[in-house]
Amino acid sequence: MVIDPGLSDGYGIAAYAPENLARAAKKIMVNIDPSEIDKLSDIIDLPIVADARLFVLEMMRQGDHITNKNRSAWNDKIIEWKNRYPFVTQEHRDEKRGISIYAFSEILSDELSSEDMYFLGIRGSPAKYS
Description:
The chain is an alpha/beta fold. The chain has five helices and five strands. Helix 1 (about 35-40) links the parallel strand 2 (about 25-30) and strand 3 (about 45-50).
């Protein structure tokens, strides 16, 4: 399942190949602007017209009602991929022409606690780190 609160950018978010965006996942898009949802209507399974902040707050409020599944095998696979294909490389950390958004997100993630949550959007490319 992919939930995108406040997503705006149309096919840019899917690298202009929307059929490849989370192919096996149910996709839920939350946006206060129905025209933004319409841009991706052919790949969104559940469009929700709502304020993204209020939607996330309500999800957090109802979090106690969610039953967690054992995903340890999947988590192990993700850790393997992260080690093999690092998100932030030394090249990002050594950027001299400005601030690399990748290095910035790594530093911010290191500074926040596991209880903190932030959403980072780069021209319509959301990422979540905690």
